[in-house]
Predict the structure.
Amino acid sequence: MNPPPAAESGCQMMKRLAKEQAKSIEKSEEHAEEFRTRITELEAQANPDQAQISALKQALEQLEKKIAEDRVALSDLESVISENC
């Protein structure tokens, strides 16, 4: 998170935070796609490592939950911005 500019208004701060949150969600989505790709690659092997696949699936599930929570938080913030700024 970037430090706030010296004379940042409340609306400016919320808009900055919304942009940062959107970027964070995008990076998390990219990371989740990397997990999906790796899981698919492992499952396609002749003798897939089930422990590694299971660990990746669990990590992916946790990441997807975080993404969903972050999207809700961003949506709430965007609503506040649209109502007040």
Residues 60-85 form one domain. The CA atoms of residues 47 and 61 lie 23 Å apart. The mean pLDDT is 93. DSSP finds two helices and no strands in the chain.
